[in-house]
Amino acid sequence: MTTTEAGSTAPSGGSEEVQQSQQPGRPGQSGQSQEIVTDIVTDHDRGIHGYHQQKAEHLKRLRRIEGQIRGLQRMVDEDVYCIDILTQVSASTKALQSFALQLLEEHLRHCVADAALKGGDEIDTKVEEATKAIGRLLRT
Hints:
This protein is of the alpha+beta class. It is 56% helix and 14% strand. It has 3 helices and 4 strands, in the order ββββααα. It has a 4-stranded mixed sheet, with no helix packed on it. Strand 1 (2-3) and strand 2 form a beta hairpin. The chain starts with a strand and ends with a helix.
C-alpha cells in the first residue's frame, strides 16, 4: 500500500510499500516548499526471506539430499566398495552445492535487492554478507 500525499492509501502493485509524509519546509522558506520523506517497507522487513516462495521445493530437494546421505550410511554399513561410496559422496556434495547456489541467487535477488532499495549502510552490510558467503562456498 502507498500512502499518498493526500493521506489516502492505494495499492502499490509490488512487494514493497512506500510510505510518504509531508513535512513543512524550513523557516524562512516560502510556505509552499515541502520535504517528502519516504520510508520503504519491504518483504524482508516483514521477516520474509528470499527463499520463501520456493520453500516447498527447497524442502523437497533437501529431503532428497538427506536420502543420499542415508544411502551413504547404508553403503558403509554394507561394506560397499570404496570407489562406489566416493562416487556417491561426490553426487551428494554436488547436490548440496547446487542447493547453496540457488539459495545464494535468491538472497541476492531478494535480500540484497531490498537493501539496495533502502540505500544507506544496509546495502554495504548485505553485500559484505553475500561476499563472505560466496567465499565460504568457494572454499568447499
